[in-house]
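[Backbone geometry]
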Amino acid sequence: MIETMKIGFIGLGIMGESMSENIVKKHDDTVYVFDFVKEKVDLLASKGAQACESAKELAEKSDVIISMVPKSEHSRAVYTGILDVLDATKTCVDMSTIDPSVSIEISEMVKKTGAGFIDAPVVKSKPAAIAGKLGIYMGGDEETCEKMRPILLYMGENVVRMGGNGKGLVMKICHNALVSQIQNGVNETIALAEKNGIGVSAYAEAISYGGGQNFYLDGKKTPIEKEDYTTAFSVENMAKDVHICMELAKECGLFMPGEQNACRVYDKALELGYGKEDFCATIKVVKG
């Protein structure tokens, strides 16, 4: 029964903090947490989680180990570090957005211990994480995915299995690549409208009446208009995903000129020092 599973959550960053808090609020058994930043652990402990001193301690105590870390090397380090305490009684869920090929390597490593493993990256950003309304793409065998679905539903409202290990991540990369290209189209056409005397609000309202209406513009029109780049999802995190997409396309022998252009915009944004700002700050690159 899901109610009697002890859950561990590793990685309490912008997204992980709110995701783990939702588990603490909704789960009837112990929730363990770990992050290298002690203040983040203390914050979750103040909300009812049990603090751990290391990922290994957390993995020893937990039936389900969830990770939400920034990059491929971090996921690899987490699972290499806990490998010798994994067994058939445990299931691992990596919700990080990393290279699909690395996730498959990790899944093979973990499954040799007898433990289950799925990738379950998320879409949408901080407000949806707070509200428990993320979209979640699962990659793994059907039995393990279905076993984990009730836990994932603590954090998201749309949880879909895309196929075997790595397929959740492939879908996440496709999703974010599409967002990056929609975003670039929004950025360029807002800049063109403004050059011709049409403001952001008027532009957004007019777009909403036609086929160009999109979720990105609906959510970011006000921050763009106010030049408020408070981070919900950072330029550097989206840049990472765009680069993963380009690497995946290269592995598949697929030419993606639109994504190449988005990649150039993100690289320029990083070069200009916008990495920690919200990813809508890429409009500053387009405007010059």
Q: What stands out?
A: Residues 167-195 form the longest helix (29 residues). The chain has two domains: 2-165, 170-287. Residues 170-287 form a domain with the N-(1-d-carboxylethyl)-l-norvaline Dehydrogenase; domain 2 fold (CATH 1.10.1040.10). The first strand starts at residue 7 and ends at 10.
